[in-house]
Amino acid sequence: MDEARTFRVAAAQFAVGRDRKANLAGCLRTIDAAAEQGAILVVLPEFCNHLSWYDDRDQALAAACRPGDDFLGPVAEQAARHGMYVKVHVTLASGGGPTGRERITAAGLLYGPDGTLAGAADKQVLMGSENDHLDPATEPGPVVHTTLGPIGLYSCMEGVVPEVCRGLALRGAHLLLNSLNSFALDEAALHIPVRAAENRVWVVAANKVGPLLPADRIGAISAAMGVPAEALDGAGESQIVAPDGTVVAKAPRYGEAVVTADIRPAAAADKRRADGTDTFAVRRPALYRPLASPPAPAPAFARTRAERIETAVVRPAGSGRAAVEDAARLVGEAAGRGAALIVLPELFWYPGGVLPDPLRPDVEDARAVLRALRQALSGSPSYLACTLPLPEGHAALLLGPDGPVLTQHQLHEGARHRGWARAGEARALRTHDAPWGRIAVVTGDDAAQPETLRLAALAGVDTAAVCLGGAAEPWEYALGLPERAAENRINLVAAGHGAGAVHALPVEFGLWRTREAPFDGVISTPVTTEAGPGLTLAPVRPRQAERRLVSRATDLVDGRPWRLADALVAPRPTAALAHRTTDR
Prior knowledge:
By secondary structure, the protein is an alpha/beta fold. It is about 25% helix and about 25% strand. It has helices at about 20-35, 55-65, 70-80, 130-135, 165-170, 185-200, 220-225, 320-335, 365-375, 445, 450-460, 475-490, 565-570, 575-580; strands at about 5-15, 40-45, 85-95, 100-110, 115-120, 145, 150-155, 175-180, 200-205, 240, 245-250, 255-265, 310-315, 340-345, 385-390, 395-400, 405-410, 430-435, 435-445, 465, 490-495, 500-505, 525-530, 535-540, 550, 555. It has a 6-stranded mixed β-sheet with strand order 5-4-3-2-1-12. The longest helix is centred in the N-terminal third of the chain and has 17 residues, at about 20-35.
């Protein structure tokens, strides 16, 4: 494939109901519209054949598609007629499983320009009522090699957790196709673009518009969920996202639409951050083994987590001694104002957090900084997170009332600290139990890897201090940190040289529960307080981390597809998985 070549791709959004013929007409109509705009590939929404709501399994089975039937056959023919790739998503009935009954899966099907099935992927993470009648995937979806480059398929809830997209990107996908059936506004605002940015891949995502539930049930369901009936329509905003997280095309919130963009899939081969760090090359698969292991109870927390604590982001002015003096003053002020956790940027007294001589860290200077910070905390119950160049490498420290209580060495190497950080010597993510909750401290380069805070969630962390360096990219502030809070149910207090924020877990979270406030279309996005220069105070809610059910039977952490996460812990991409397609 010509690496400089661009292709026009499309995302289509439309309404789907119970009328199979009308649903097929919507698929064919939007495929035609994409072809008329010159697209070589179009992505359609999730569950194109029927509303994702069934009275029982028999109804779900009757509505399901079968290969080559009167629904999928015309879609394949349309792909061939236009000579284009078409991703359609349906419920699919297939041969008997271990119990002998037919399986019904939520399946993404990619038809090629000749009308044949190029690849298929069953949904790994089912959402809410989907668990009642559908069967989850038993194997990871393939990476499909096409004229556009390697493509991966995923759908809706699989993009609300990090594992599925991460696995596809690690196995070589440059373009990810996402079909959605969602009324959540945080899909378009957060979950879709972050999967592009963190994996440095292109994403084409198609959502629905119109009612997502049967008209005769919508009133009762609305009351049970505490969500207004009008908010249960598909959220639209289908979009195409570049590898840096930039949305290059977006459909409107309401109404049928097809949006297109010209993309260069080969650009996704470059996994380097702005500072030159190859984010895939520095991964530590051996550290991530818990992500591919069965859910286990997190280490018990001996106390009751606090409902609410005050936290502080400190961004001192200047550099060198002036920065240290300003930091000490602000830390003292934060402690005096009741901040239980205070966070400083990475190596805050160096411009951009970069040592002037990376091969000769000034350890004596670091000790002087530590003394100044401890003095500022003297007599206070506050905890303070910062990073220092220690003799054994770069480390984040958590200072308690009586001195350091946790030393967390940097887990992933980065170009800024190459030669002295020695991340390979760090063996695990550590935690500390404060009177109000369990804390982890994360350095900037580690925060860029989604696996890091996933490990924190599995360790029962409710609040993480993130010390960001000067190399943090715009997507990390705008998308990465909010997503880490949302997908892991962890409060994040992040301080950087250029920005910072407190991302607090919301009280209004998930579905199928009584709400204290009107539903605003957001399900899991944290409440964010942006931090300016100097001192910023904002509350977080440690106890909210115990709530992980985003919908009935869908746990954001323990419900991760751990059985199918081998790519995350493999020392290198698995060739057998990277090149397999699924025969149906």
